[in-house]
Amino acid sequence: MNVSRYPVAIAGAGPAGSALALALHALGVEALLLDRPLAQPFRIGESATPDVAGLLSRLGAGHALDGQPGYHGNLSLWGSETPRLDHFLYRGHGHGWHLDRAGFDQALRQEAVARGVAVLGESGIDAIEPADGGWRLRVRGLGEAEARVVVDAGGRRSPLAARLGIPRCRLDRLQALACHVDCPGELSGYSLVESAPYGWGDAAALPDGRALATLMTDQDLARAQGLEHPADFLAAWRATRLLSERLPPPPRIDAVHAFAAHSGCVSRAAGPGWICVGDALMGLDPLTSSGIACALGDALAAAPAIAAMLDGDLAPARAYAKRADDCFRRYLAERRRHYRQENRWPERPFWQRRAFAPAALAVPA
């Protein structure tokens, strides 16, 4: 039986996986990129911070932002009764982008294909076991394969790390409940963010002329308030001030879509013959708008560590794990600081849970 052999197999072709394939290609390392099917066709929009352009430039993929509308800052109602504008220019940065995530992800995958990376669609790793010098894999749509290094780029469930017995720490049960609606012109270019007793909501314009309205709360609180039901979702939206003024809720919506948005990380970032990147490494609160930047940064940091693994040197992988630990510590401190700025509902469960959130959590090498 023919067995396909690759130096590296990457499970997941989102931004982190595709960017890693590009970074490895630049180092002369061949990789198999496995593009798993989406669980649901609805795609939640995402904001990309100004530093994303520089990261894409390092990958030679700056064109992935072509046609994506500018994101200039946030208008927020948080910790105060007065809205506040946080414009990126105030920080000395350029603008960010409100992404069509499906189009952005596709642009990165297509760039990988154009450079000769082997990309297998509708695929994933169904089984994995150690083999001489690496791993033996059962790959959907390919059959048996071997890889010397495997990469988990499969999202917040860390599916490949779970198969390897690497546990994941989950800090909360944050859930995003979202719908698409027609977008008024005055929303273009900014994200709206507004806190509420049960959590917070946000809204942003999308490249296709619609807007994405999202309510964020913990999974149990969403069930208790019925936010997965269109009528209750609309009622909570109408009860907001900033969101309902700038993006008036429609009379009805057909469905509310739920997405995991919890914070967490794998207990180990890398080990002999494996490594995690993107959300599979650490899942960040959407409040930070840093998921895309972190995914691209992980890819650029992981590529030389993987190249060194192939040469038998694990020291760069340990440095990569130390980087992940430092990044997650900074994220937790910033997350706690931001949530503590809102103290109008200290007795409500959502805010009580954030008030006592940890300030640090190590990701051991």
TrEMBL record:
Pfam families, alphabetized: Trp_halogenase
Superkingdom: Bacteria
SUPFAM superfamilies recorded: FAD/NAD(P)-binding domain (SSF51905)
Name of the molecule in the record: FAD-binding monooxygenase
Species assigned in the record: Pseudogulbenkiania ferrooxidans EGD-HP2
